[in-house]
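Annex B. Sample input.
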Amino acid sequence: MATPIRIKRSAVPGKRPQVTDLQKGELALNTYDAELVTLRDRFAQTGIATEVVRLGAGATVTNVIYVTKDGNDNNTGLKLGDAKGSIAGAVAISTTGSIIRVSAGSYVENNPIKLPSQVSVVGDSLREVSITPQNAGSDLFHVSPGNYLSELSFTGSMSAGSAIVAFDPEKPRYSTQSPYVSNCTNFIQNSIGMKIDGNAVFGPFKSMVTDAFTQYNANGIGVSITNGGYAQIVSLFTINTDVGVFAGSGGQCDITNSNSSFGNFGLVTESVSPRKNTGVIVTEQAANKDTFAINVNSTPFDISNFVYDKNTGFATVTTSTDHNFEVGMGVSLNGMTLQCNYGSGPHTFVEATNGAVNVQSGAQAGTELTPSGSTYIATTGVLTLSFSSAHGLSTNDTITLDDESIIFTCDADNHQTTHPYPRATDPASGASLSVTVTSSTAFTINVGTVSLQNKVYPDGKVGYVFDVKSVPNSTSFTTHVGPNRFEHTYVSGGTAKIDVVRPFDGQVVYFDKLYQEVQKIKVTASGSNYTSAPTVTIDAPTVDFGIRSTAVAVLKDGKVDSIDLVSSGRGYESTPTISIAGGGGAGATASLVMKDKYYAIRKSTPISSGITTITVDDNVPYVVGVGTTVPIHKQSRILASSHSFEYIGSGVDLIESLPSRGGVAIQDNEVDDRAGGLTIFTSTDQAGQFRIGDGVIIDQQAGTITGTFYSKSLFSTMTPFILALGGD
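Annex B, continued. Sample output.
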């Protein structure tokens, strides 16, 4: 009969023995959890204390790093039973293509966590994996190209302006693939869910992508897109935010099937980007036309100096004559010759072939030696060879090295591949080299230094167009071209010029002078005792093509409740005066909110000899003469399809914003376009109003159709009955 093997055991769920309960090599079994554990002792090798670990936790993998609550950052992270204890610990060993799998639990992380390119962080379950930032004044994740975050919740506290996900502002990266956030929830008040700052990244993809990202971050911002950044957003839910989605300084985004609930503002756009280029009218155009031929050619300026900081990636470029660049412009750099110390950094020994060293003179002449180690200092040319036993050589003995007999990795490719030395083209190839003995098992020889190399920059791998960050004076500007492992010193040549592309939809222009029109009217005092609607008068503009803005007052309980804008007017050069008079009452006052009149480019012809013909979205009401300047900007723009608004304007307090607690919606706050920004949207609100911008408003409760699209028709308000009668 077989003898049963008995081990320590327990049937209590979750119970594990302590370190003192087991001897080395002894096992313990939890029969409830079907979990077998033993002691692991690595103290002698790594200094890690003895601990109880689970057996059979899976095979070691190379591209998946595990994080668990009972893990330890001193572990390898390469299997579940040897998991890291923090996401930051896993990131520290991650490389391109790594997936960091985070088990259920709450993790307090030393942020910002800077993710390498093409690294994913994936939680077990959205509701069961929570991450809390340790440093409230810093962003939580700084993302790189190709990052993916999924199934995570974010809790704790952060300072206003800090973001869950952002580009690294201290180390902008060249991006060819957007970071992606999917199925996550942000619970941190005051925070920004996604901060997409175009100034913190360069290249063709200044963008992020998100799907199913819930923002329950009271008084924060759901998604912020600025400085030419871009976002594609699906199923974004913002609750009690100060702003649901913000686009400013030329930031743009697409939003589909999303919702903004409570909070102060829903979708907000503000201003345009800095000037990207300036066209010049080449053919006079009559008034009330929408097509214009412009010259968009830019002058190349010769570069006289280029000072580069390899650690930050910033460069100061000096031109031989005054340039006309402004902050925010895209400038193409071409043809600079730079000198760099490529390959002059650390060399790491891999192996040597047998008999690599041939002794030519001295007591050991005719023998062959095989190095066991080597170091090389590229800047001095000194090669140190070490051996597992005494070499027997003396100082001034001579040797030769077999070609390609000593194998190194080096910084030329960040130690990714091996390189054999000496090559046939190296000075040491076939040369008689004098020995300097440093010990009985080591000596040095001089095999020559690595010479500095001249390279033409940019090489196109990181693009040719870079944004102007500052303009210290008329002949210099700074830009960010990306960090590098090597120093680069300017030699000669090169040009800098404003980048010129075919004008496109998303850009806006004006013609010589930026005029204004009235955007909205705010009642600042309601007055009292009005028996009829008072007359609202807005001063007329002074230009001959100007049109006075008009508005009507709306009464409620003898007070001016609101003022409806009938016409925005045109041609204002400053904010006009508004007055309210009549109606039997007194005391009502109002203020005007103005907006700049930009013309959106709808289409353009290909550039030929510097000339393109643009078509804009509205007729220009005045003659545009030859030589008129046409500044070109990128508009801050949100394109929102099927967006739902619920009680926007009711505030950021999670309780007091509820209708049952007195929260009141402010329809004007659903979409707020400021200083030239534009939101193109279809939406439905809590009252059942379906809106196609401000052009068509279908009130399902009242059964009416209104909107600015009807301002030129016979009926400013249409009902189903009127429609059935054919409008008669």
